Amino acid sequence: MSRDKFLFVTGKLASHSLKDLLSRMTGVLPFDWEINTLPINVAALATTEWINSHLELTSKPDKIIIPGLCRGETEILQNHTGVPCIKGPKDLRDLPDFFKVGNFNPKRSDYGKYTIEIIAEINHAPDLSLDEIETTAFHLASQGADIIDLGMNPGKPWKHIGQCVQRLKNQNFKVSIDSFNYEEVSNAVKAGADLVLSINEDNLEIAKNLECEFVLIPKEPGMTDSLNKCVEKLLSWNRKFRIDPILEPIGHGFAKSLLGYFKTRELYPNIPLMMGTGNVTELTDSDSAGINAILIAICQELSIQSVLTTSVINWCRTSVKEIDLARKLMFHAITNQVIPKRLEPGLLLLRDPTYRKHGIETLNRFKSEIKDKNFRIFAEDGLIHVMNKNIHLKGQDPYKLIEEVKKTESIDESHAFYLGFELCKALTAITLDKNYTQDQELQWGFLTREETIHRNPMVDK
What we know:
single chain; alpha/beta; Rossmann fold; TIM Barrel; four-stranded parallel sheet
C-alpha cells in the first residue's frame, strides 16, 4: 500500500534543521516527505501569495505544509496547485506534537466535559454598588462560574440583598448567599436565591421553612456526630442540601480535613458534597493554578460536585478560570484512566510544556547563512543571541547587547524600540527557561496575550 507524500515548504535558514528533524521522525511518521526550499531566508516572513509565485512542483504531493506564521489564505496555494495545503506549527520544533508522534498525547474529541460546579464568591458584596456586582458577576461567569455567591459582611443586615439577588436573577444567574444572618438569608431566598451558605447546628432551623438548597457545615472541625445529626434532620425535613466538611488551612489541620471529605463521602455516598478552596489557595504563598488543579483532582476522585472559590488576593485572582480548566482536565483523566499530562496547556502558566533548543552548532550555522542586515534574535541556555550578516552577539543583559549593536550598526528609533522589546521578551525567556521565538508572544497558558507584529518585515531573497 503506497503512502502519502507531504511537501514541506521552508526557507533557506530552516531547511537544514527541518530535514534533520523529519529524518529523525521518519520511522514514526505515517507519510513520506520531501522539502522545497524557497529563495528566501525565513519562509515564515513570506505571504501565501509570494509562496504561490515562487513555488515550483517537480511532482504532485498529497499535501503541502507551509510555516504556521505565513500570512494569507492557504486556498491561494491549493487553488493554484490542486493540492490540499495547510499551515504547520509556528515553530518547526513543534512538528512532533503537530503530527501527534512521540510522547504526545492528543485530547479525545469529547474533551471538555465536567461534573464539578463552580461557585464564585463576590467578597464583601454590600460594599459594592449593584452595577459593580453585576459587572463582576458577568466577568466571573465568563471565566466559568456556574453560581455567583454574594459574600455578606458581619453585623447589620444588608438592606439591598433582595434587590441585588433579583437583579442577578433577571440576568439569568444562579445566585447563592453566604451569610448566617436569618434576615439576610430570608430576604435573599424570597428574591430567588438558589443556594444558602451555610447552616450548622446553631442555625439549622432556618432550613425548615425556606424553600432553597443549603450547604451544611460542621460547627467546629471534626464534629462528625453533630454533623450527622444535622444530616438526619435535613433528610427528615425533605430539604435539598450539600455537605462541606470544611477544608482547613495548611498548618491548621489541612491533611486531616482532607480525610474528613473522604470519610463523609464514604458515609453519605448519595449526598452532594462541596469544597471551599480559599482556605488553602488564599492562605498559601504560591501561585494558585497548581494548587487548584490538585484540589480539583481530589474533588473529582471523591465525587465532590461543587467548589466554592474566592479570588481576593492577587495570586488567586484567576482562580475561577483555573478551576474551569482543571475540572475538564481531571474529569477527562479520571474518567478515561489516563495521566493528566499534555492535555491542558492552558494551566501551564509559568513554564512551557516542552523546552526546545537549537543548540550552539545550529545557531552558528544560522549566522554563517545570514546574508542580510536584518537582526535575528534567539534565546536559550541562559543566553540571548543577536545576529545578522555582520555580528553574532551573546549575553544576558539587553542594555549591553544594544550598546554592542550600536557600535557596528546604525538603527533608528523605531528599530531600536523593536529590538528592545524583543530583547526584553528574550530576557524573560532565559530567566524562566521558556521558549522564545522572535516576533511571537511568550506562552503563559490561558493568560497568553496574542502579539501583533507592528513592523513590516522585508522579504529578503
